[in-house]
Structure formats: C-alpha cells, structure tokens
Specification:
2 domains, Rossmann fold, six-stranded parallel β-sheet, about 40% helix, about 425 residues, 14 strands
Length: about 425
C-alpha cells in the first residue's frame, strides 16, 4: 500500500477540496494511507465529512498573506494570478517552508496537488513525486482565462523572479513561468476536451468531472417536499465574503442578484453558501427562498431546474454532470473562463457584473431575470447540458483518477523518476 498526501491552495472555498476529496477517499477505501492538508474552515468541514485526516499546521508559523486581490480577480491567466498572490518574497519564502515541513513530517510517497503552487515547489524541493489535478485553464499549456481574446498582452506581471529566488534556495533550477510548476510527473485534467481544451502537445490525461458526494448522501426531506409544479432554482454563491471588509473577489453579488430578480418570481429558490453563513448585510431572504449552508451538490443539481452560481469550475462541472443548465454571474476572470465554456456548449447563459467605484460588484437585475426566464423556458439549454453530461460520463471521474494515481505510485517504486523542475 502507498502513502499519499493531498494538498491544494488553502482558499476558504470548496472548489479545490471537492475535486481532491473523492480521489483521496477512493484511495483510502482501497487500503492506502491518505491524508489531506487544508487548514481553511470550510474545506476542513468537507474533509471531515469525508472521514479523512486533515493534517494540523506545523509548528512553523504561516506568514500573513500579501496579495493584490483586484489583480487576482482580473488576471489574464494563471501566471498573472500568481503574480498577484505571490508578490511578497518573504511571505512566499515562509509559506513554502511551511508546506515543506508538512510534506517532510508526513513523508508521503506521492503528493497529489491542485492549484497549490508552493506545495508543488516544496514537493520538487524534497524530490517527492507529484501528481497534479487541474482544470484546463490553469494548466501551463492553456490559453488562459481570457482565451476568447486570443493573444495574451505583452508585459503582464509574473511572480517568476520571486519564485525562482525561493526555488534556488532549495537547489532547484529557475522556471520561465510559475505555471510550469503546476505540471506534475502526472497531470490529470478535470472535465473533458470540450469543457477544458488543451493542445494535443500537452502531456495530460483527462479524467472527466469529479464531484464530491457521500455515497449515502440524500437531500433533506424539506427539499424533496418542495412543490414540483414550480421551477426550483438552486443558487450557489460560494464564499460571499472572503474577509470582514469587501474584496474584489467576493461572490455576494450572486446572492444580491438572486434576491432582486427572483424574490418576486413564481419560483422556489434554495440558496447554499458552501459551509458559509449569509452575511447580515443581505437582510431577510424573500419568502420563496430557503437557505442551507451545505447540501449534497450532485443530488441538488439533479433535483433543480436551473443552477445560478459564480462560475467556479466545480459548480460548472456539477451542473453539467447532472445535465442541468445554468445562469452564471462570474466574479473573477477564472470563473468567467469556465462560464464561457459552458455557454459555448449551449448549456446556459452568462450575466457579467459591473464593478463600482467602491470595488463592489453589481448586476443589472432585469438582464439577470431575463436570462433566468430564457433558460427556464427554452428546452434547448437543458438538451445541451444533457448532451455534455453524456459525453462526460465516458471518462470515469474520481475512480479513473484514483486508478491513475494508484498506478503512478506503483510505477514510482519500480523505476527511477526524473526530478521535476
């Protein structure tokens, strides 16, 4: 049996753990030794729900993050995104050291990571084989978040200079782009070539969508009891507020849009927030709204007539796998990228928010309401979503991913593995 450590960028959202937990749970069920590391509150709840050990923080303190969230939210691609997240050399050095401690202390045979740039760096520094689980638009070979604009502008920022200083301290050669570190010894791509296209030259394996849901999970009785003669809309905002003060990447605009446009419509709305509360500033929800901090995602997507969400890759995958159309209010360019792929497949519509002088996002409620009505009434959207669902199910999802990770670990023990740089 092998020993695996699952790591990811520790954002307080469910997108990254949702894709990794099913693989980790599958490997644990096969008898392998598995642990996860993500100290953020909402992911910690999901990891605990799956019955997986979540490693504690090491004794070394984690430095306070230094980030430009406005740049992160408007980034052209993952390279510019990393430039916004790792713009402070000392914080980057300290955070890398924490991840190196976690890996060194747990001593896994393989690290399985998603979007954790510095955990990927630490794995390389310690010469631990690395598997990365990525959506297409964050793989180094992708066309970026703004892929429909074709050519990446020259001179966009990169954190490569900072990352290379830290890498050199571990004896690693420099990289031209930070994104190069995300390509593991094995790279698994979520989704399909339609939803997450990459050039044929990319050395990747598609595994289809991965959505976490306990095998015995069921929707609560109050959901099943909702009137089936009225359309049911599932509104998922993700994290409404990432801090006590507004930030440019908040998804509270999704909740506000839903309240303004759907509160007077003859529909039923279930609002979930991914183990987050509804901010007090929202006020009382309309009578046709019901809030739950968390519900089984795939079951809820299959039960509803329409999903409304912020464009997270996991939300897009969940809806498409269920064959349910969506109206998306993307809150950052990475989410806009995912939304535009869904729209290109014919499975929904996108309504872009505007950013005010105070940095808060707002939306045209009439435009949003019209989009909701179109998607509810035109069966073509649901037909398109079901077509994509059928194509997705050919890839195997979490089981295929666990198979490939397991086979990779077995191969590592039989032959030398080149150090990834």
């Amino acid at each position: 049996m092998a020993k695996f450590l699952f790591t990811m960028m520790p954002a307080n959202d469910l997108g990254l753990p949702t894709r990794l937990v099913p693989i980790a749970r599958g490997l644990a069920d096969r008898g392998h030794q598995v642990a996860v590391f993500n100290p953020a509150p909402a992911p910690s709840k999901l990891i605990a729900e799956a019955g997986l050990p979540n490693l504690p923080m090491p004794s070394r303190p984690m430095p306070a993050p230094v980030m430009d969230l406005a740049q992160a939210g408007s980034a052209w691609d993952v390279e510019e995104f990393f430039a916004a997240v790792y713009l402070d050399e000392e914080a980057t050095r300290g955070e890398t050291a924490v991840y190196a401690d976690v890996i060194r202390d747990y001593d896994p045979e393989v690290v399985v990571d998603s979007f954790g740039l510095l955990t990927c760096l630490a794995a390389r520094a310690l010469e631990v084989p690395l598997v990365t689980v990525l959506q297409g638009n964050i793989h180094p070979a992708s066309d970026g978040f703004l892929w429909w604009k074709k050519d990446r502008p020259a001179g966009l920022p990169s954190a490569a200079a900072i990352i290379n200083k830290v890498a050199a301290e571990y004896g690693l050669r420099p990289v031209e782009r930070c994104a190069d570190l995300l390509a593991g010894n094995l790279s698994l791509i979520l989704g399909t070539p339609e939803t997450d296209p990459l050039p044929a030259s990319a050395n990747v394996k598609y595994v289809g969508p991965i959505v976490w849901q306990r095998q015995e999970a069921r929707l609560p009785e109050w959901v099943e009891a909702l009137d089936r003669h009225k359309p049911l809309i599932w509104v998922y905002s993700g994290n409404p507020r990432y801090s006590n003060a507004p930030t440019p990447i908040d998804s509270i605009v999704v909740i506000r849009a839903a309240i303004e446009a759907l509160g007077q419509m003859p529909v039923q709305v279930v609002l979930t927030t991914g183990y987050q509360g509804v901010p007090d500033e929202v006020g009382a929800l309309p009578p046709n709204f019901t809030h739950a901090a968390y519900l089984p995602g795939l079951a809820m997507a299959e039960r509803c007539d329409l999903m409304v969400h912020h464009g997270g890759h996991g939300s897009v995958m969940t809806g498409l796998l269920a064959g349910t159309p969506a109206v998306i209010v993307p809150t950052i360019t990475e989410r806009e990228s995912n939304a535009r792929r869904l729209v290109a497949a014919g499975a929904g519509e996108i309504v872009m928010p505007a950013t005010g002088a105070d940095g808060e996002k707002t939306i045209d409620a009439a435009e949003f309401g019209a989009a909701v009505n179109r998607v509810l009434k035109d069966a073509a959207y649901r037909h398109a979503a079901k077509r994509v669902s059928e194509s997705m199910r050919q890839y195997g999802g979490a089981k295929t991913a666990a198979d490939r990770v397991e086979q990779f670990a077995a191969g590592v023990g039989r032959q030398p593995l080149a150090r990834v740089r």
